[in-house]
């Protein structure tokens, strides 16, 4: 059946449109261009960087080690950049991405300050018409989404436009920063972003009030400044990292090394202490893998981390009750790294407000009003209220596939993809960082995004080599992947928690574990097997 959508008149024709100019988008553009395709990338930002262009809030930085958050397809590209710290901050990350864009001459094929608003599939011609807010209507064979999994901010507090002071969202923090010295500042949210902001601005503000709803397990970050010797050391590991990262459980350099059953209780505590002192995410991603499946193991590891947090909070009842989780296990939510975050709450100029049972009602002209009528007055309000993860970037675009079907409507009923790479009913729509792949949440992003863009490039090459023009998951192929995903996720404790990992932070969002939890290496193997077998989960014509 032919779509009845009014597709408009094309203003130009290309082989592929790439949505986004972040880590995935830059590499995808480079690959498709090297393959000989005429490609145009679009990004609403003013320059390259993706999340690292938008998230310029105080304290924004990697919690992956910088030397693994890099492209691994070119040894010289890898070695010619040297990080100044183990966990670099946003300004340095943005400079790196600008450097990559210059090195690969990518900007000439990217349109910045241009938002894609719609993409409609024309069944008669087997091509997409992609619309932008600048009036472009681009006729393209392939539409590749590299929009990012945390790029659709939630803005669901009433009254933000009434505030008479300065109000900013962390996801659109002004590049020039804010003058916070001596001011009354309110921060809403204690997720990874809120934590970075709070620990950074606390020393400079006049008074800081933090509004916390969901407590988070946190791990202390050790972030040494790198010497030339340090840079030479990690540069010398290029081959090792290129061969290792794609095959670990989470795309980091470390993996689970210890079996719970093989250790005595004393040995377990020694191991936990040792990897806690590493100052990285190692306790989460390379401790005891059993904590994701076994409630008793989870409780022991969780209590270990709780004990560390309570000690740093000096066992203050209010701080412990508000900031230390008790109703979910360590690692079943995102685990932030921090640097002196818990100690902030001992400062005389910092107050912590627990809004778990007394939520924020609305923003008033002078501040934040709670449900019980309490009004907290501020000069500046910073909202770190999270994202519509995984799906939000695409559901905010009018994407129509075969028979005019709407991706927004479909994902509003049930979140389904085929390997996080495509969606049944949407030919030649290829995706990264969407649900049902590790890149939706549980991965060192560059590891997973490189793998997905390389798979997409291979799929397009194979299609063209065989003289075919369209690739689309079959219903049976998609059903099989969703069933496999659910079987894997259902065996873990992650499926029993309430967090953005399941879309719980978005009212009405279908509940499903967003990230594939079978492991980055396993996922990669399954993707490779799919391609090597001739794409049996897809229809190619």
- Would you tell me the structural class of the helices and strands? alpha/beta
Largest sheet: 8 strands, mixed
- Percent of residues in β-strands: 15-25%
What is the distance, rounded to the nearest whole angstrom, between the alpha carbons of the first and last residues? 16 Å
Poorly predicted runs are 1-5
Radius of gyration (CA) equals 23 Å
Query: Which architecture of the domain at 12-48 and 106-152 and 388-468 per CATH?
Result: 3-Layer(bba) Sandwich
Mean pLDDT: 96
Shape: globular
What is the number of beta strands?
A: 20
What share of residues is helical? Answer: 25-40%
What does this 3D model show about the protein?
By secondary structure, this protein is an alpha/beta fold. It has a domain of 165 residues: FAD/NAD(P)-binding domain. The protein is 30% helix and 16% strand. The longest helix has 21 residues. The N terminus is likely disordered.
């Amino acid at each position: 059946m032919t779509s009845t959508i009014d597709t408009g008149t094309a203003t130009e024709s290309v082989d592929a449109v790439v949505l986004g100019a972040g880590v995935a988008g830059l590499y995808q553009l480079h690959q498709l261009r090297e393959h000989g395709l005429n490609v145009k990338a679009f990004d609403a930002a003013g320059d390259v960087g993706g999340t690292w262009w938008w998230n310029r809030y105080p304290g924004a930085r990697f919690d992956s080690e910088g030397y693994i958050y890099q492209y691994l397809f070119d040894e010289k590209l890898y070695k010619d950049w040297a990080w100044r710290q183990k966990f670099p901050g946003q300004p340095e990350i943005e400079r790196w991405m600008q450097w990559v864009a210059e090195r690969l001459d990518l900007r000439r094929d990217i349109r910045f300050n241009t938002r894609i608003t719609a993409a409609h599939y024309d069944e008669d011609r087997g091509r997409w018409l992609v619309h932008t807010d600048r009036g472009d209507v681009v006729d393209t064979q392939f539409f590749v989404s590299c929009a990012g999994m945390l790029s659709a901010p939630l803005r669901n507090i009433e009254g933000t436009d009434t505030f008479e002071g300065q109000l900013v969202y962390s996801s659109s923090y002004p590049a020039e920063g804010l003058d916070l010295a001596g001011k009354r500042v309110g921060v809403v949210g204690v997720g990874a972003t809120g934590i970075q902001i709070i620990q950074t601005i606390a020393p400079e503000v006049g008074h800081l009030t933090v509004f916390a709803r969901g407590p988070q397990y946190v791990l202390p970050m050790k972030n040494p400044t790198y010497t030339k010797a340090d840079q030479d050391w990690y540069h010398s590991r290029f081959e090792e990292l290129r061969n290792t990262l794609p095959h670990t459980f989470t795309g980091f350099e470390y993996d689970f090394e210890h079996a719970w059953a093989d250790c005595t209780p004393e040995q377990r505590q020694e191991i936990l202490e040792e990897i806690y002192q590493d100052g990285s995410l190692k306790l989460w991603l390379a401790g005891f893998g059993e904590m994701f499946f076994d409630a008793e193991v989870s409780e022991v590891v969780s209590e270990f981390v709780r004990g560390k947090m309570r000690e740093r909070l000096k066992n203050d009842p209010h701080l412990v009750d508000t900031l230390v989780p008790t109703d979910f296990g360590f690692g079943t939510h995102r685990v932030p790294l921090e640097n002196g975050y818990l100690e902030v709450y001992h400062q005389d100029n910092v107050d912590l407000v627990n809004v778990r049972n007394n939520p924020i009602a609305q923003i008033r002209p002078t501040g934040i009003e709670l449900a019980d009528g309490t009004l907290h007055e501020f000069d500046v309000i910073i909202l770190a209220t999270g994202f519509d993860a995984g799906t939000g970037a695409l559901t905010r675009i009018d994407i129509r596939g075969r028979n005019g079907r709407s991706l927004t409507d479909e994902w509003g009923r049930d979140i389904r993809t085929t390997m996080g790479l495509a969606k049944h009913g949407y030919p030649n729509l290829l995706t990264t960082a969407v649900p049902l792949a590790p890149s939706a949440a549980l991965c060192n992003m560059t590891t997973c995004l490189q793998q997905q863009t390389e798979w997409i490039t291979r799929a397009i090459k194979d299609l063209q080599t065989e003289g075919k023009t369209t690739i689309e998951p079959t219903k049976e192929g998609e059903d099989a992947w969703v069933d496999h995903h659910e079987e894997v996720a259902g065996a873990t404790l992650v499926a029993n928690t309430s967090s953005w990992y399941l879309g719980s932070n978005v009212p009405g969002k279908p509940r499903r574990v967003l990230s594939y939890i079978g492991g980055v290496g396993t996922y990669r193997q399954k993707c490779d097997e799919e391609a090597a077998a001739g794409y049996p989960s897809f229809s190619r014509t």
